[in-house]
Design brief:
heterodimer; A: about 300 residues; alpha/beta; Rossmann fold; five-stranded parallel sheet; three-stranded mixed sheet; 10 helices; 8 strands; about 10% strand; B: about 325 residues; seven-stranded mixed sheet; about 40% helix
Protein backbone atom coordinates (compact mmCIF):
# COMPACT_ATOMS: atom_id res chain seq x y z
CA UNK A 1 0.00 0.00 0.00
CA UNK A 2 1.61 3.25 -1.12
CA UNK A 3 -0.76 6.13 -0.55
CA UNK A 4 2.15 8.45 0.12
CA UNK A 5 3.05 10.81 -2.68
CA UNK A 6 6.58 12.08 -2.79
CA UNK A 7 7.68 10.41 0.41
CA UNK A 8 7.76 6.65 0.57
CA UNK A 9 6.42 4.68 3.48
CA UNK A 10 9.94 3.45 4.14
CA UNK A 11 11.16 7.01 4.48
CA UNK A 12 8.35 7.82 6.90
CA UNK A 13 9.22 4.77 8.98
CA UNK A 14 12.83 5.93 9.10
CA UNK A 15 11.61 9.40 10.11
CA UNK A 16 9.54 7.89 12.93
CA UNK A 17 12.59 6.02 14.20
CA UNK A 18 14.71 9.18 14.17
CA UNK A 19 11.98 11.04 16.07
CA UNK A 20 11.87 8.28 18.68
CA UNK A 21 15.64 8.46 19.08
CA UNK A 22 15.43 12.25 19.52
CA UNK A 23 12.79 11.81 22.24
CA UNK A 24 15.06 9.47 24.18
CA UNK A 25 18.09 11.73 23.74
CA UNK A 26 16.17 14.89 24.65
CA UNK A 27 14.53 13.58 27.81
CA UNK A 28 17.74 11.84 28.89
CA UNK A 29 19.70 15.07 28.41
CA UNK A 30 17.09 17.05 30.33
CA UNK A 31 16.90 14.42 33.05
CA UNK A 32 13.14 14.84 33.13
CA UNK A 33 10.14 15.01 30.83
CA UNK A 34 7.47 12.73 29.41
CA UNK A 35 8.88 10.03 27.14
CA UNK A 36 5.95 7.58 27.33
CA UNK A 37 3.24 9.79 25.87
CA UNK A 38 5.72 11.29 23.41
CA UNK A 39 6.64 7.89 22.00
CA UNK A 40 3.01 6.83 21.72
CA UNK A 41 2.09 9.67 19.35
CA UNK A 42 5.18 9.61 17.11
CA UNK A 43 3.57 7.72 14.23
CA UNK A 44 0.53 10.00 14.29
CA UNK A 45 2.81 13.05 14.08
CA UNK A 46 4.85 11.51 11.29
CA UNK A 47 1.71 10.69 9.29
CA UNK A 48 0.61 14.30 9.75
CA UNK A 49 3.83 16.23 9.17
CA UNK A 50 5.24 13.75 6.68
CA UNK A 51 2.10 13.45 4.61
CA UNK A 52 -1.30 14.86 5.58
CA UNK A 53 -0.50 18.42 6.63
CA UNK A 54 -0.23 21.27 4.14
CA UNK A 55 2.64 23.18 5.67
CA UNK A 56 5.85 25.00 4.84
CA UNK A 57 8.68 24.92 7.40
CA UNK A 58 10.20 28.00 5.71
CA UNK A 59 6.97 29.93 6.26
CA UNK A 60 5.56 28.84 9.62
CA UNK A 61 2.97 31.64 9.70
CA UNK A 62 1.63 30.95 6.20
CA UNK A 63 -2.05 31.89 6.61
CA UNK A 64 -3.27 28.91 4.59
CA UNK A 65 -1.26 26.27 6.43
CA UNK A 66 -3.00 23.38 8.12
CA UNK A 67 -2.66 23.64 11.89
CA UNK A 68 -1.61 20.87 14.24
CA UNK A 69 -2.69 21.56 17.81
CA UNK A 70 -1.19 19.52 20.63
CA UNK A 71 -3.70 19.37 23.45
CA UNK A 72 -1.64 16.88 25.46
CA UNK A 73 1.13 19.46 25.96
CA UNK A 74 3.45 17.09 27.80
CA UNK A 75 4.18 15.33 24.49
CA UNK A 76 6.25 18.42 23.62
CA UNK A 77 9.44 16.42 22.85
CA UNK A 78 7.66 14.53 20.07
CA UNK A 79 6.46 17.77 18.48
CA UNK A 80 9.86 19.46 18.72
CA UNK A 81 11.54 16.39 17.22
CA UNK A 82 9.14 16.22 14.27
CA UNK A 83 9.39 19.97 13.69
CA UNK A 84 13.18 19.72 13.72
CA UNK A 85 13.16 16.85 11.23
CA UNK A 86 10.92 18.98 8.98
CA UNK A 87 13.31 21.93 9.22
CA UNK A 88 11.49 24.28 11.60
CA UNK A 89 14.49 24.29 13.95
CA UNK A 90 17.98 22.80 13.90
CA UNK A 91 18.13 19.17 15.02
CA UNK A 92 21.08 20.14 17.25
CA UNK A 93 18.78 22.40 19.28
CA UNK A 94 16.66 19.47 20.46
CA UNK A 95 18.94 18.55 23.36
CA UNK A 96 18.40 22.01 24.91
CA UNK A 97 14.93 20.82 25.97
CA UNK A 98 13.84 22.27 29.35
CA UNK A 99 16.99 24.33 29.83
CA UNK A 100 17.00 28.03 30.75
CA UNK A 101 17.28 30.06 27.57
CA UNK A 102 16.03 27.28 25.31
CA UNK A 103 13.00 27.77 23.07
CA UNK A 104 11.99 24.23 23.93
CA UNK A 105 9.85 24.58 27.05
CA UNK A 106 8.79 21.56 29.08
CA UNK A 107 5.28 21.90 27.71
CA UNK A 108 4.60 23.50 24.33
CA UNK A 109 4.36 27.28 24.05
CA UNK A 110 2.82 29.12 21.09
CA UNK A 111 5.44 30.12 18.51
CA UNK A 112 8.35 28.74 20.51
CA UNK A 113 9.75 27.86 18.07
CA UNK A 114 7.54 29.07 15.20
CA UNK A 115 5.57 26.02 14.10
CA UNK A 116 4.15 25.36 17.56
CA UNK A 117 0.50 26.39 17.21
CA UNK A 118 -0.72 26.55 20.80
CA UNK A 119 0.39 26.83 24.41
CA UNK A 120 -0.70 23.79 26.41
CA UNK A 121 0.18 21.80 29.48
CA UNK A 122 -3.11 22.04 31.30
CA UNK A 123 -5.26 19.36 29.72
CA UNK A 124 -8.57 19.81 27.96
CA UNK A 125 -8.03 23.09 26.11
CA UNK A 126 -6.81 21.96 22.70
CA UNK A 127 -10.07 21.00 21.07
CA UNK A 128 -11.69 24.32 22.03
CA UNK A 129 -8.74 26.23 20.55
CA UNK A 130 -8.92 24.12 17.39
CA UNK A 131 -12.63 24.84 17.07
CA UNK A 132 -11.87 28.57 17.29
CA UNK A 133 -9.34 28.32 14.47
CA UNK A 134 -11.71 26.17 12.42
CA UNK A 135 -14.42 28.82 12.78
CA UNK A 136 -11.92 31.53 11.77
CA UNK A 137 -11.01 29.57 8.63
CA UNK A 138 -14.64 29.35 7.64
CA UNK A 139 -15.28 33.04 8.35
CA UNK A 140 -12.25 34.04 6.27
CA UNK A 141 -13.11 31.66 3.41
CA UNK A 142 -9.84 29.77 3.81
CA UNK A 143 -9.58 26.04 3.33
CA UNK A 144 -6.97 25.14 5.93
CA UNK A 145 -7.65 22.26 8.29
CA UNK A 146 -7.24 21.73 12.01
CA UNK A 147 -5.78 18.59 13.52
CA UNK A 148 -5.97 18.31 17.28
CA UNK A 149 -4.19 15.57 19.20
CA UNK A 150 -5.80 14.52 22.48
CA UNK A 151 -4.62 12.08 25.11
CA UNK A 152 -6.58 9.97 27.59
CA UNK A 153 -6.21 12.72 30.19
CA UNK A 154 -7.73 15.29 27.81
CA UNK A 155 -10.82 13.11 27.67
CA UNK A 156 -11.12 13.21 31.47
CA UNK A 157 -11.53 16.98 31.31
CA UNK A 158 -15.10 18.25 31.07
CA UNK A 159 -14.03 21.08 28.79
CA UNK A 160 -13.13 18.61 26.05
CA UNK A 161 -16.74 17.44 25.98
CA UNK A 162 -17.94 21.04 25.87
CA UNK A 163 -15.81 21.40 22.75
CA UNK A 164 -16.96 18.07 21.33
CA UNK A 165 -20.55 19.26 21.61
CA UNK A 166 -19.84 22.73 20.25
CA UNK A 167 -17.79 21.46 17.28
CA UNK A 168 -20.62 19.24 16.10
CA UNK A 169 -23.06 22.09 16.70
CA UNK A 170 -21.02 24.40 14.47
CA UNK A 171 -20.56 21.64 11.85
CA UNK A 172 -16.84 22.25 11.41
CA UNK A 173 -15.79 19.62 8.88
CA UNK A 174 -12.34 21.23 8.65
CA UNK A 175 -11.56 19.87 12.12
CA UNK A 176 -10.13 16.42 12.83
CA UNK A 177 -9.52 15.27 16.38
CA UNK A 178 -7.07 12.43 16.90
CA UNK A 179 -7.01 10.47 20.13
CA UNK A 180 -3.67 9.01 21.13
CA UNK A 181 -5.52 6.26 22.97
CA UNK A 182 -2.76 4.55 24.92
CA UNK A 183 -4.90 4.01 28.02
CA UNK A 184 -2.19 5.10 30.44
CA UNK A 185 -2.12 8.37 32.37
CA UNK A 186 -0.03 9.98 35.08
CA UNK A 187 -1.06 7.68 37.91
CA UNK A 188 -1.55 4.44 35.98
CA UNK A 189 -4.09 2.75 33.74
CA UNK A 190 -7.17 4.58 32.51
CA UNK A 191 -9.08 1.29 32.34
CA UNK A 192 -8.55 -2.40 33.03
CA UNK A 193 -7.57 -3.56 29.54
CA UNK A 194 -3.84 -2.73 29.64
CA UNK A 195 -3.32 -3.80 33.24
CA UNK A 196 -1.37 -7.02 33.02
CA UNK A 197 -2.29 -8.75 36.25
CA UNK A 198 -5.59 -10.31 35.25
CA UNK A 199 -5.64 -12.48 38.36
CA UNK A 200 -7.22 -9.56 40.15
CA UNK A 201 -10.88 -9.23 39.36
CA UNK A 202 -12.01 -6.12 37.56
CA UNK A 203 -13.64 -3.75 39.96
CA UNK A 204 -15.98 -0.88 39.71
CA UNK A 205 -14.09 2.36 40.17
CA UNK A 206 -10.33 2.42 40.53
CA UNK A 207 -7.84 0.89 42.90
CA UNK A 208 -4.12 1.05 43.59
CA UNK A 209 -2.11 -1.98 42.50
CA UNK A 210 0.79 -3.71 44.28
CA UNK A 211 3.14 -1.86 41.89
CA UNK A 212 1.68 1.45 43.05
CA UNK A 213 -0.31 2.26 39.90
CA UNK A 214 -3.90 3.38 39.94
CA UNK A 215 -5.89 0.91 37.85
CA UNK A 216 -9.10 2.05 36.16
CA UNK A 217 -8.54 5.79 36.74
CA UNK A 218 -11.55 6.73 34.64
CA UNK A 219 -12.81 4.25 32.08
CA UNK A 220 -13.38 6.08 28.78
CA UNK A 221 -15.29 3.23 27.17
CA UNK A 222 -17.46 3.11 25.19
CA UNK A 223 -15.45 5.80 23.44
CA UNK A 224 -16.68 5.39 19.89
CA UNK A 225 -20.33 5.55 20.95
CA UNK A 226 -19.71 8.67 23.02
CA UNK A 227 -18.27 10.66 20.10
CA UNK A 228 -20.87 9.35 17.69
CA UNK A 229 -23.66 10.35 20.06
CA UNK A 230 -22.19 13.85 20.18
CA UNK A 231 -22.50 14.10 16.39
CA UNK A 232 -19.01 13.25 15.17
CA UNK A 233 -17.86 10.90 12.43
CA UNK A 234 -15.76 8.26 14.20
CA UNK A 235 -12.86 6.41 12.58
CA UNK A 236 -10.56 3.93 14.30
CA UNK A 237 -7.07 2.87 13.38
CA UNK A 238 -3.89 1.28 14.64
CA UNK A 239 -2.00 4.36 15.78
CA UNK A 240 1.37 2.85 14.85
CA UNK A 241 0.57 1.68 11.32
CA UNK A 242 1.67 4.58 9.12
CA UNK A 243 -0.16 3.53 5.99
CA UNK A 244 -3.36 2.90 7.97
CA UNK A 245 -2.98 6.30 9.66
CA UNK A 246 -2.49 8.03 6.32
CA UNK A 247 -5.51 6.31 4.82
CA UNK A 248 -7.63 7.21 7.85
CA UNK A 249 -6.55 10.85 7.75
CA UNK A 250 -7.55 10.97 4.09
CA UNK A 251 -10.96 9.52 4.95
CA UNK A 252 -11.41 12.14 7.67
CA UNK A 253 -10.61 14.91 5.20
CA UNK A 254 -13.35 13.69 2.88
CA UNK A 255 -16.08 13.85 5.54
CA UNK A 256 -18.43 16.80 5.01
CA UNK A 257 -20.92 18.44 7.32
CA UNK A 258 -19.48 17.48 10.68
CA UNK A 259 -16.15 16.99 12.44
CA UNK A 260 -14.30 13.68 12.53
CA UNK A 261 -12.46 11.95 15.32
CA UNK A 262 -9.82 9.30 14.74
CA UNK A 263 -9.44 6.93 17.66
CA UNK A 264 -5.82 5.84 17.23
CA UNK A 265 -5.06 2.77 19.31
CA UNK A 266 -1.55 3.27 20.59
CA UNK A 267 0.94 1.86 23.07
CA UNK A 268 2.47 4.17 25.64
CA UNK A 269 6.27 4.13 25.30
CA UNK A 270 6.00 2.52 21.84
CA UNK A 271 9.34 1.38 20.40
CA UNK A 272 11.25 0.89 23.65
CA UNK A 273 10.56 -2.52 25.22
CA UNK A 274 10.87 -1.51 28.85
CA UNK A 275 8.81 1.64 28.38
CA UNK A 276 5.92 0.03 26.51
CA UNK A 277 2.72 -0.07 28.56
CA UNK A 278 4.70 1.09 31.56
CA UNK A 279 3.10 3.97 33.50
CA UNK A 280 6.43 4.64 35.22
CA UNK A 281 7.65 6.39 32.06
CA UNK A 282 4.72 8.78 31.78
CA UNK A 283 6.66 11.57 33.47
CA UNK A 284 10.12 10.16 34.07
CA UNK A 285 13.16 10.44 31.84
CA UNK A 286 15.36 7.44 31.10
CA UNK A 287 18.62 7.22 33.06
CA UNK A 288 21.79 7.33 30.93
CA UNK A 289 21.92 3.51 31.02
CA UNK A 290 18.27 3.19 30.09
CA UNK A 291 18.74 5.72 27.30
CA UNK A 292 21.63 3.69 25.91
CA UNK A 293 19.54 0.54 25.95
CA UNK A 294 16.59 2.35 24.34
CA UNK A 295 18.77 3.81 21.57
CA UNK A 296 20.17 0.36 20.88
CA UNK A 297 16.61 -0.91 20.39
CA UNK A 298 15.90 2.02 18.08
CA UNK A 299 19.06 1.58 16.04
CA UNK B 1 -20.89 67.23 39.39
CA UNK B 2 -23.36 64.44 38.79
CA UNK B 3 -25.90 64.97 36.07
CA UNK B 4 -29.19 63.14 36.22
CA UNK B 5 -28.74 60.54 33.48
CA UNK B 6 -28.11 56.96 34.56
CA UNK B 7 -27.15 53.86 32.60
CA UNK B 8 -25.69 50.42 33.21
CA UNK B 9 -22.11 50.12 32.03
CA UNK B 10 -22.95 46.72 30.53
CA UNK B 11 -25.10 48.54 27.97
CA UNK B 12 -21.92 49.78 26.31
CA UNK B 13 -20.84 46.41 24.93
CA UNK B 14 -23.25 45.52 22.13
CA UNK B 15 -23.58 48.98 20.53
CA UNK B 16 -19.85 49.71 20.77
CA UNK B 17 -18.89 46.42 19.10
CA UNK B 18 -21.42 46.96 16.33
CA UNK B 19 -20.04 50.45 15.72
CA UNK B 20 -16.41 49.28 15.67
CA UNK B 21 -17.11 46.34 13.39
CA UNK B 22 -18.93 48.64 10.98
CA UNK B 23 -15.76 50.77 11.00
CA UNK B 24 -13.86 47.73 9.74
CA UNK B 25 -12.36 46.17 12.86
CA UNK B 26 -12.15 42.38 12.51
CA UNK B 27 -14.27 41.69 15.60
CA UNK B 28 -15.93 38.39 16.51
CA UNK B 29 -17.88 37.41 19.63
CA UNK B 30 -18.03 34.05 21.40
CA UNK B 31 -21.06 33.85 23.65
CA UNK B 32 -21.99 31.60 26.58
CA UNK B 33 -25.74 32.14 26.76
CA UNK B 34 -25.70 35.46 28.57
CA UNK B 35 -25.50 37.70 25.54
CA UNK B 36 -28.90 39.20 26.29
CA UNK B 37 -27.70 40.28 29.76
CA UNK B 38 -24.25 41.48 28.70
CA UNK B 39 -25.71 43.08 25.54
CA UNK B 40 -23.26 41.12 23.35
CA UNK B 41 -26.27 39.66 21.54
CA UNK B 42 -26.85 42.99 19.84
CA UNK B 43 -23.61 42.31 17.98
CA UNK B 44 -24.91 38.85 17.05
CA UNK B 45 -28.00 40.41 15.56
CA UNK B 46 -25.98 42.83 13.44
CA UNK B 47 -23.25 40.34 12.46
CA UNK B 48 -24.67 36.81 12.74
CA UNK B 49 -21.71 35.23 10.92
CA UNK B 50 -19.33 36.77 13.48
CA UNK B 51 -21.24 35.59 16.54
CA UNK B 52 -20.50 32.13 17.89
CA UNK B 53 -22.70 30.74 20.66
CA UNK B 54 -21.13 27.83 22.56
CA UNK B 55 -23.76 27.33 25.24
CA UNK B 56 -23.21 27.65 28.96
CA UNK B 57 -19.59 26.53 28.73
CA UNK B 58 -17.23 29.27 29.83
CA UNK B 59 -14.06 27.18 29.66
CA UNK B 60 -14.76 26.24 26.06
CA UNK B 61 -15.70 29.85 25.32
CA UNK B 62 -12.27 31.10 26.39
CA UNK B 63 -10.20 28.67 24.34
CA UNK B 64 -12.47 28.97 21.29
CA UNK B 65 -11.83 32.71 21.60
CA UNK B 66 -8.10 32.03 21.86
CA UNK B 67 -8.21 29.98 18.66
CA UNK B 68 -10.03 32.74 16.81
CA UNK B 69 -7.50 35.26 18.15
CA UNK B 70 -4.58 33.10 17.04
CA UNK B 71 -6.14 33.19 13.56
CA UNK B 72 -6.02 37.00 13.63
CA UNK B 73 -9.43 37.99 14.99
CA UNK B 74 -10.15 40.58 17.68
CA UNK B 75 -12.26 38.43 19.95
CA UNK B 76 -14.73 39.58 22.60
CA UNK B 77 -16.24 37.26 25.17
CA UNK B 78 -18.68 38.26 27.83
CA UNK B 79 -20.48 36.71 30.75
CA UNK B 80 -21.00 37.54 34.42
CA UNK B 81 -17.92 38.50 36.43
CA UNK B 82 -18.43 35.44 38.66
CA UNK B 83 -18.05 33.15 35.61
CA UNK B 84 -15.22 34.93 33.82
CA UNK B 85 -12.67 34.82 35.33
CA UNK B 86 -14.14 32.55 38.03
CA UNK B 87 -15.32 29.60 35.96
CA UNK B 88 -12.50 29.68 33.42
CA UNK B 89 -9.45 31.01 35.22
CA UNK B 90 -7.04 28.30 34.08
CA UNK B 91 -8.17 28.87 30.49
CA UNK B 92 -7.54 32.61 30.81
CA UNK B 93 -4.11 31.98 32.32
CA UNK B 94 -2.77 29.33 29.96
CA UNK B 95 -4.97 29.94 26.94
CA UNK B 96 -4.92 33.74 26.79
CA UNK B 97 -2.46 35.40 29.20
CA UNK B 98 0.59 33.23 28.56
CA UNK B 99 0.41 33.42 24.74
CA UNK B 100 -0.83 37.06 25.05
CA UNK B 101 -3.65 36.52 22.62
CA UNK B 102 -6.05 39.19 21.47
CA UNK B 103 -8.98 38.15 23.67
CA UNK B 104 -11.11 40.78 25.39
CA UNK B 105 -13.19 39.72 28.36
CA UNK B 106 -16.02 42.14 29.06
CA UNK B 107 -17.67 40.95 32.26
CA UNK B 108 -20.96 42.27 33.48
CA UNK B 109 -22.77 41.89 36.81
CA UNK B 110 -19.66 42.72 38.82
CA UNK B 111 -19.92 43.55 42.51
CA UNK B 112 -22.60 43.25 45.15
CA UNK B 113 -24.65 45.82 43.22
CA UNK B 114 -25.73 42.90 41.07
CA UNK B 115 -28.24 42.70 43.88
CA UNK B 116 -31.14 40.32 44.28
CA UNK B 117 -29.55 37.25 42.65
CA UNK B 118 -27.36 36.88 45.74
CA UNK B 119 -23.78 35.92 46.44
CA UNK B 120 -23.59 33.32 43.66
CA UNK B 121 -23.99 36.16 41.16
CA UNK B 122 -21.90 38.83 42.92
CA UNK B 123 -18.50 39.10 41.27
CA UNK B 124 -16.38 40.38 44.15
CA UNK B 125 -13.12 38.49 43.56
CA UNK B 126 -12.81 38.93 39.79
CA UNK B 127 -10.25 41.71 40.04
CA UNK B 128 -7.94 39.72 42.31
CA UNK B 129 -8.00 36.95 39.72
CA UNK B 130 -7.43 39.01 36.59
CA UNK B 131 -4.88 41.32 38.21
CA UNK B 132 -2.79 38.20 38.83
CA UNK B 133 -2.52 37.55 35.09
CA UNK B 134 0.67 39.09 33.63
CA UNK B 135 -0.02 40.93 30.38
CA UNK B 136 -3.72 41.53 30.99
CA UNK B 137 -5.07 45.09 30.84
CA UNK B 138 -7.71 45.62 33.52
CA UNK B 139 -10.27 48.42 33.28
CA UNK B 140 -13.20 49.28 35.56
CA UNK B 141 -15.36 51.94 33.92
CA UNK B 142 -17.24 54.33 36.22
CA UNK B 143 -20.08 55.07 33.84
CA UNK B 144 -21.48 54.27 30.43
CA UNK B 145 -19.39 56.85 28.61
CA UNK B 146 -16.20 55.48 30.08
CA UNK B 147 -17.28 51.90 29.37
CA UNK B 148 -17.75 52.69 25.67
CA UNK B 149 -14.29 54.22 25.48
CA UNK B 150 -12.71 51.37 27.46
CA UNK B 151 -14.22 48.78 25.12
CA UNK B 152 -12.97 50.74 22.13
CA UNK B 153 -9.48 50.94 23.66
CA UNK B 154 -9.59 47.18 24.20
CA UNK B 155 -10.59 46.59 20.60
CA UNK B 156 -7.88 48.85 19.23
CA UNK B 157 -5.03 47.72 21.50
CA UNK B 158 -3.30 44.39 20.98
CA UNK B 159 -3.37 41.87 23.82
CA UNK B 160 -5.69 40.55 26.51
CA UNK B 161 -8.15 42.84 28.30
CA UNK B 162 -10.60 42.59 31.15
CA UNK B 163 -13.32 45.25 31.30
CA UNK B 164 -15.56 45.15 34.37
CA UNK B 165 -19.16 46.27 33.93
CA UNK B 166 -22.21 46.31 36.17
CA UNK B 167 -25.89 45.42 36.00
CA UNK B 168 -27.82 48.37 37.49
CA UNK B 169 -28.18 51.82 36.06
CA UNK B 170 -25.68 54.11 37.75
CA UNK B 171 -25.24 57.85 37.26
CA UNK B 172 -23.30 59.15 34.30
CA UNK B 173 -20.62 61.21 36.01
CA UNK B 174 -18.51 62.33 33.08
CA UNK B 175 -19.10 65.30 30.84
CA UNK B 176 -19.48 64.93 27.09
CA UNK B 177 -15.86 65.76 26.39
CA UNK B 178 -14.42 63.15 28.77
CA UNK B 179 -11.53 61.12 27.33
CA UNK B 180 -10.57 57.79 28.87
CA UNK B 181 -6.86 57.11 28.51
CA UNK B 182 -5.32 53.67 28.88
CA UNK B 183 -2.82 53.64 31.74
CA UNK B 184 -4.03 56.95 33.15
CA UNK B 185 -6.05 57.79 36.25
CA UNK B 186 -8.50 60.67 35.98
CA UNK B 187 -8.70 63.42 38.56
CA UNK B 188 -12.47 63.62 38.95
CA UNK B 189 -12.17 66.32 41.63
CA UNK B 190 -9.26 68.30 42.98
CA UNK B 191 -8.45 68.49 46.69
CA UNK B 192 -5.43 68.89 48.95
CA UNK B 193 -6.25 67.22 52.28
CA UNK B 194 -7.03 63.64 51.32
CA UNK B 195 -7.43 61.50 48.19
CA UNK B 196 -10.14 58.95 47.54
CA UNK B 197 -9.07 56.51 44.84
CA UNK B 198 -12.14 54.76 43.51
CA UNK B 199 -13.35 52.47 40.75
CA UNK B 200 -16.68 51.74 39.13
CA UNK B 201 -19.81 52.71 41.01
CA UNK B 202 -17.65 53.90 43.92
CA UNK B 203 -16.35 56.88 41.91
CA UNK B 204 -19.85 58.29 42.12
CA UNK B 205 -19.91 57.58 45.88
CA UNK B 206 -16.48 59.14 46.27
CA UNK B 207 -17.68 62.33 44.58
CA UNK B 208 -20.63 62.44 47.00
CA UNK B 209 -18.21 61.92 49.90
CA UNK B 210 -16.08 64.80 48.62
CA UNK B 211 -19.16 67.05 48.77
CA UNK B 212 -19.79 66.01 52.38
CA UNK B 213 -16.17 66.69 53.30
CA UNK B 214 -16.18 70.04 51.49
CA UNK B 215 -19.00 71.19 53.78
CA UNK B 216 -16.60 70.54 56.67
CA UNK B 217 -13.81 72.46 54.98
CA UNK B 218 -11.88 69.34 53.94
CA UNK B 219 -10.50 69.29 50.41
CA UNK B 220 -10.95 65.79 49.00
CA UNK B 221 -9.32 64.77 45.75
CA UNK B 222 -11.12 62.03 43.85
CA UNK B 223 -9.09 59.84 41.51
CA UNK B 224 -10.99 57.62 39.12
CA UNK B 225 -8.66 54.60 38.89
CA UNK B 226 -10.54 53.11 35.93
CA UNK B 227 -7.37 51.66 34.48
CA UNK B 228 -6.05 49.32 37.15
CA UNK B 229 -3.51 47.72 34.88
CA UNK B 230 -1.33 49.24 33.76
CA UNK B 231 -1.63 51.32 36.92
CA UNK B 232 -1.01 55.07 36.77
CA UNK B 233 1.73 54.93 39.40
CA UNK B 234 2.60 58.60 38.91
CA UNK B 235 -0.92 59.75 39.68
CA UNK B 236 -1.09 57.52 42.77
CA UNK B 237 2.23 58.81 44.08
CA UNK B 238 1.41 62.44 43.29
CA UNK B 239 -1.88 62.16 45.18
CA UNK B 240 -0.21 60.54 48.15
CA UNK B 241 2.56 63.11 48.18
CA UNK B 242 0.27 66.12 47.73
CA UNK B 243 -2.57 65.10 50.06
CA UNK B 244 -0.77 62.79 52.49
CA UNK B 245 -3.76 60.52 53.11
CA UNK B 246 -5.45 57.94 50.89
CA UNK B 247 -8.77 56.06 50.96
CA UNK B 248 -9.55 53.40 48.37
CA UNK B 249 -13.15 52.53 47.47
CA UNK B 250 -14.32 49.54 45.42
CA UNK B 251 -17.29 47.21 45.10
CA UNK B 252 -14.93 44.22 45.45
CA UNK B 253 -13.06 42.45 48.21
CA UNK B 254 -10.42 44.71 49.73
CA UNK B 255 -7.99 41.83 49.20
CA UNK B 256 -6.51 41.58 45.75
CA UNK B 257 -8.23 44.51 44.06
CA UNK B 258 -7.74 48.28 44.11
CA UNK B 259 -6.81 48.46 47.81
CA UNK B 260 -4.05 45.87 47.45
CA UNK B 261 -2.72 47.46 44.30
CA UNK B 262 -2.53 50.97 45.77
CA UNK B 263 -1.19 49.76 49.13
CA UNK B 264 1.57 47.82 47.41
CA UNK B 265 2.51 50.82 45.29
CA UNK B 266 2.57 53.22 48.23
CA UNK B 267 4.41 50.79 50.51
CA UNK B 268 7.17 50.63 47.95
CA UNK B 269 7.47 54.30 47.03
CA UNK B 270 5.53 56.57 49.37
CA UNK B 271 4.25 55.07 52.65
CA UNK B 272 1.01 56.92 53.42
CA UNK B 273 -1.85 56.49 55.94
CA UNK B 274 -4.58 54.50 54.17
CA UNK B 275 -8.07 53.16 54.70
CA UNK B 276 -9.95 50.67 52.54
CA UNK B 277 -13.63 50.78 51.65
CA UNK B 278 -14.89 47.57 50.05
CA UNK B 279 -16.07 44.08 50.91
CA UNK B 280 -14.26 42.95 54.06
CA UNK B 281 -13.53 39.23 53.64
CA UNK B 282 -17.18 38.24 53.40
CA UNK B 283 -19.94 37.45 50.92
CA UNK B 284 -23.06 39.56 50.58
CA UNK B 285 -26.70 38.45 50.48
CA UNK B 286 -29.66 39.04 48.17
CA UNK B 287 -31.23 42.45 48.16
CA UNK B 288 -31.79 45.69 46.31
CA UNK B 289 -28.46 47.13 45.29
CA UNK B 290 -28.81 50.42 47.11
CA UNK B 291 -29.71 48.54 50.30
CA UNK B 292 -26.73 46.22 49.88
CA UNK B 293 -24.39 49.20 49.51
CA UNK B 294 -25.72 50.54 52.82
CA UNK B 295 -25.45 47.17 54.54
CA UNK B 296 -21.84 46.57 53.49
CA UNK B 297 -20.64 50.12 53.96
CA UNK B 298 -20.17 51.11 50.33
CA UNK B 299 -21.50 54.62 50.97
CA UNK B 300 -20.43 58.25 50.78
CA UNK B 301 -20.75 58.49 54.57
CA UNK B 302 -18.36 55.58 55.15
CA UNK B 303 -15.88 56.99 52.67
CA UNK B 304 -16.05 60.39 54.41
CA UNK B 305 -15.58 58.72 57.79
CA UNK B 306 -12.54 56.84 56.48
CA UNK B 307 -11.17 60.09 55.04
CA UNK B 308 -11.40 61.84 58.41
CA UNK B 309 -9.62 58.93 60.09
CA UNK B 310 -6.68 58.91 57.67
CA UNK B 311 -6.38 62.68 57.91
CA UNK B 312 -6.15 62.31 61.70
CA UNK B 313 -3.46 59.68 61.30
CA UNK B 314 -1.29 61.82 59.05
CA UNK B 315 -1.35 64.56 61.67
CA UNK B 316 -0.40 62.12 64.42
Amino acid sequence: MTPVSGVSLRELEALAKRVRRHIIEMTAAAGCGHPGGSLSCVDILVALYGHALRHDPQNPHWPDRDRFVLSKGHAAPAVYAVLAECGYLPVEELVTLRQVGSRLEGHVVLDSPPGVEMTSGSLGMGLSFSLGQALAARLDGRDYRLYCLLGDGDLNEGQTWEAVMASAHHQVDNLTAIIDYNRIQNDGFSDYSRYEDKSRPQRTGGWVSEQGHTVNILDLQPLEEKWRAFGWEVLETDGHDLSALIATLAKAKAVKGHPTVIIAHTVKGKGVSFMENNPAFHGKAPTPEQAEKALAELA
Amino acid sequence: MTNKAAAATREALGPTLVRLCRQGLDIVVVDADLGSSTTARQFGKAFPERFFPVGVAEQNMVNVAAGLAAAGKTVFISTFAVFAPGRCFDQLRLGVAQPRLNVKVVASHAGIITGEDGASAHGIDDLSLVLSLPGFHVIVPADLMEAEQAIEAAARTSGPFYVRCVRPKIPIIHDEGYKFRLGKAHVARQGKDVTVMAIGVMVWKALEAAELLASEGIGCRVLNMACLKPLDVEAVLAAARETGAVVTAEDHLVHGGLASLVAQTLALHQPTPMAFIGMQDQYAVSGRWDQLMERYGLTAEKIAEAARSVIARKKG
